[in-house]
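Q: Sequence in, structure out?
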Amino acid sequence: MEKVLDFIKKIYAIVKDWVVANGVEGVLGLIVGLFLWSFGYKVYAGFAFGVFATRNWDLVKNFFKK
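A: Exactly. Output:
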């Protein structure tokens, strides 16, 4: 049981760090993109996913610059 709790804590920390690093724009881009896509607004969802991808690309680029 303790291993499961440790695993959940690690996953929570990873997700929390990703949300903090990604910022409001990245997280909202993902949420809005999924929402729009589910209602059939694929063009607008593409813009939202573009914001999400840009924020993640910045994270990856900065990771490799270190």
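The chain has one domain: 2-65.
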